[in-house]
């Protein structure tokens, strides 16, 4: 049997297998990056959910102060409801969806800060241990949100960098570029504090 006769076929099959395994590796890596962005988005949502849960407890604690401004509480409750109504599919995150989500979460932050400022007028509420604990937990949660958003953007950077680079982009046509979290409009301006 002449082995040299089959050598071109063996080399051809070998090259085809190497290319096939390389393409599978590219697709599997694209899938891993995509899954990492979805996990990071889940972490962002978990952080926001924690904040929403704490806000409910905070509002109930503040309601105990009978003469507390009802309009402030209503604004917090409405902002929280609006923020929880927005859902985003992490597989198809668009800049518009993130802007809408960001705007709703900004409304929660704004109404919550108004609530905490107006609490200053109620010494018995400021001394309430439940309220103080919730206030500390909210501050901690805001830090968790920042961390989750930062990690989300890092995962988006890795994902976009991988799927948009050549030659991966040739084989990952069904993977689309995903949007980053951006600061809310006006966040670059200093906050005016009035006493």
H/E series, N to C?
A: HHHHHH
Radius of gyration from the alpha-carbon trace, in angstroms? 26 Å
CATH-defined topology of the domain at 29-82 and 92-171:
de novo design (two linked rop proteins)
Provide the CATH architecture of the domain at 29-82 and 92-171: Up-down Bundle
The CATH superfamily of the domain at 29-82 and 92-171 is identified as LemA-like domain
- If helices are DSSP runs of H or I spanning 4 or more residues, what is the number of helices? 6
How would you sum up the global shape? rod-shaped
What's the CATH C level of the domain at 29-82 and 92-171? Answer: Mainly Alpha
How much of the polypeptide forms β-strand, as a percent range? under 5%
Give an overview in words.
With about 200 residues, the protein is mainly α. It has a domain at about 30-80 and about 90-170: de novo design (two linked rop proteins). The chain has six helices and no strands. The protein has helices at about 5-65, 70-85, 95-120, 125, 130-165, 170. It is rod-shaped, with a radius of gyration of 26 Å. It starts with 6 loop residues before the first helix and ends in a 24-residue tail after the last helix.
């Amino acid at each position: 049997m002449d082995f040299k006769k089959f050598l071109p076929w063996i080399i051809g099959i070998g090259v085809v297998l190497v290319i096939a395994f390389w393409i599978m590796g590219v697709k599997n890596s694209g899938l891993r990056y995509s899954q990492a962005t979805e996990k990071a988005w889940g972490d962002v949502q978990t952080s926001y959910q924690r904040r929403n849960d704490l806000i409910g407890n905070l509002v109930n604690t503040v309601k105990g102060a009978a003469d507390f401004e009802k309009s402030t509480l209503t604004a917090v409750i409405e902002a929280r409801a609006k923020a929880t109504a927005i859902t985003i599919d992490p597989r198809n995150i668009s800049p518009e969806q993130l802007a809408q989500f960001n705007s709703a979460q900004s409304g929660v932050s704004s109404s919550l800060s108004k609530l905490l400022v107006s609490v200053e007028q109620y010494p018995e509420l400021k001394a309430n241990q439940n309220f103080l604990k919730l206030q500390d937990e909210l501050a901690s949660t805001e830090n968790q949100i920042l961390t989750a958003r930062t990690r989300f953007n890092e995962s988006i950077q890795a994902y976009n960098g991988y799927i948009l680079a050549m030659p991966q982009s040739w084989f990952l046509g069904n993977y689309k570029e995903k949007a980053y979290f951006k600061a809310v409009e006006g966040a670059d301006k200093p906050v005016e504090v009035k006493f």
